Amino acid sequence: MNKTAVNEFILLAFSQYNQLQILIFLVILLMYMTTVIGNIIIIGLIKTDLHTPMYFFIGVFAALEISFVYVTVPKLLANLIIGMENTISVKDCITQLHFFHFLGCAEGVLLAAMGYDRYVAICQPLRYNNIMNKSICVQLVLGSWITGLIYATIHSVMTSHLPFCTFEKVHHFFCDVKPVIKLACTDTRLNEITLTTVSGLVTTGTFLLTMISYCYISGHLLQIRTAKGRCKAFSTCSSHLTIVILFYGTAMCTYLGPFSEDSIEKDKVAAILFTVVTPTLNPLIYTLRNKEVKRALRKFLTKSVSKH
Q1: What's the distance, CA 150 to chain centroid?
Q2: Is 180 helix (H, G, I), strand (E, B) or coil?
Q3: For residue 229, what are the contacts with CB-CB under 8 A and spacing of at least 6?
Q4: pTM of the model
Q5: CATH for 8-307, among 3.40.50.150, 3.40.50.300, 1.20.1070.10, 1.10.287.1490?
Q6: From the first residue on, what is the mean pLDDT of each consecutive set of 10 residues in the chain (308 residues)?
């Protein structure tokens, strides 16, 4: 085995689909632009018209989404437009891996906090402003960032200490933990166990906390006698619940699966859903399924048209 230290990896991305490179590039570029523009619009609407704790969390989540796609998609687009295998230094690879997991974990924890916010709003409406005060909201956001930082640091530090002995090809479109540690020329069982355990604890833990909130919400909705009242109460959390299902569904498919050669393509598809498709859908879900966001958007558009 060649023991020469490796300074670069090759990101294969979708190099096996040479004839579809331009089509894939255009589709992902459209999704990327939709994600960035959609979330910027949401942040702008929240800043001007929507000032409740729920929209504070949505605004933070939108900012995380922009950062999340920025970590991986521009590099992928560059790879596709060049139309060839793209190199990335080991240092940049570990950096990308770190920020990807930091932002992804922070989003997951923030979704759990948003679930708690919906629980308080629906089940304890009279105490909502006292419980979800500005200090608590900021603490919950900081908690999501700190959790994400710890989670990402575990993976990036453990991965950075692995020896990579040959000029290796990463069978992925960005530096994620699973495909990178497969390239190490040493026993990686500890890394694999750590990834599965820590990812499992964080993903299932935050998902269960979110589901606990929705169990209480469901119990409260059953006590409402009129169908109109139940629909009105549920409409305030339907957007969040949809995003929770999309986020955790794709995350679990990506990180709780087996470490095998057969899973490479499946992991790549799941990663596309997690890193590109889901962030594209999120701002659309919040604008199409949320009456207050739609009302704020119409108000903004009316003002813009009247000025001209």
Answers
A1: 17
A2: helix
A3: none
A4: 0.88
A5: 1.20.1070.10
A6: 66 74 89 94 85 89 95 88 75 93 95 94 90 94 96 93 78 85 84 86 91 91 78 78 88 68 70 88 79 76 68
